[in-house]
Amino acid sequence: MNSKYLKQTILLLFGLVLLTTFGCNKKLDTAVASAEASVNMWQSYDDARNGLVAIYGLSRAALADNNGHWLYGDLRKGDFVATSSGNYLDAIIKNELNKGFPQIKKLTNWRRFYAAIDACNTFIENAQRCKADLRYSDLNCTVDIAQAHMLRSFLYFYMVRIWGDVPLITKATKNGETIQVARSPQDQVMDYCIRELRQYKDSLPTEYGGDDKSKLNYDGNYYGQAWSNWGNAFWGYYQCLGLLAQMYAWTGDYAAVLTTTTEIFNNAAAARTGLISYTNSRGYLAGRNSIFYSNGIKGNLCYQMISFPYNMSNRESGPSGVGHIESLTLASPYMVRAKPDIYVPRDTIARWFHYFGDVRHPYQSEFGNYEEIYFSNYFGNIPVFTKFKNIETGSSNFPIFGSCIPIFRWEDNLLLMAEANYALGDMRAAFDRLNDVREPRNSPGFFYGRISAVRPGFTLQPTEASMEGGILYNIFRERRVELAGEGSWWYDQVRYNRLARNNAEFNKLLDEGGIYWPIDQDIIDKNPLIEQNSYWKR
Predict the structure, then answer these.
(1) Which of 3, 121, 226, 371 lies at a CB distance of 3.0 to 4.6 Å from 172, suitable for a disulfide?
(2) What is the pTM of this model?
(3) DSSP letters along 321-348, please?
């Protein structure tokens, strides 16, 4: 888009984010602010584009705020340790979510999610009006509205994993009205989200600004830009399938998980994504040129299958590093501070790996030294998690981070397939999919040796250590390592323990609702229909 339109889009998004931040007390009891259509909005092609960018921006802001994506998804009973004992990060790690830290209080408030949902509702209800501008075609409008439905479903799914039952609101607010809505059972919310995604997935192209492989045939530039600029910044058909796979896994519908992940698996070319190869593992999994930088495009592929990227060509970055895991995990020499906020202890790192030759292991046997791939300062008091170190060159005094908020990628899909195969009793297929991920990381296989199809002379041989704990444990062990720092480990633990039921402490959390967060008391005080999660009433 040209500079005039870019400025308009940024100003609109900035205004909506300000509304989210400062308008909390005058709007919904279940929402933070209204994205109410203004007199001059919803009249043109440009209005539609700006409205679409705004709903992506507000969705990204909901996850980025207070680094919530990682504090919700990676910290609770996870591998990270707070460098300062007794602070709010330490409390989250220990699942002490009723401690009176202001940072935790902000995380227990769902208003920013409802700001994004209200923006989606507003877009769905008003985008058709933009067709008065003949540049805004029926197909363009159909595709954009489908994206708004998809984002809304994603946001509800994200909230269900955090709070369980949540109010289900599908109409835009009007004139700043106050709405008091009770929580809907999470099963009903998930059913609604899944129905929405299934209904609208065929209204989405396989890519934007390129060669669409869907029945829509939506080829050519999208809002004036090619796929090489957009990557997966806008979500399409295969992003919709990725979300469906995650939702099915959360609800325990493993037959649907397998069907959905298999469709993705069989269509890598159409999805323009794929497995990070052995050759590319060191460069693509970590560092300044990793797949997590900016839009994640490497050649003709976008390895961030689903994410909220920051466009570094436009110098996008979260304020003061918020919305980037680096602001929690990095320290000197990458930025000016002596120690990170959180780190992974050496004994935990040792439990992650069962082979020194794993390309993600701190010690790289191929080179006979310690490489800064997943970790640096390995033998210091505090190892630094450097899988994410996407920093603009020369910006250590005032870091400008470039990493995305990662949601889903090819390796995630493979491991979801393995999980589904296990749940459905197809153990050989589960071994295969697990080994598909282990092979390019130079990690020993599970159960059987397999000759590599892409690495001449290499055979993926199992070892006693690589099979320890059984197939289910190893599927999730691989998720723990491969997807480290991507905001999924807590949800993975929930799914693992639902299947395994071999951890009495975690079973208690599952049975008593302790897997969910408490709800901010401000929400409850303003809406008598909202009741606190039972686990946190004590």
Answers:
(1) 121
(2) 0.92
(3) GTTSTHHHH--TTSSSSSS-SEE--HHH
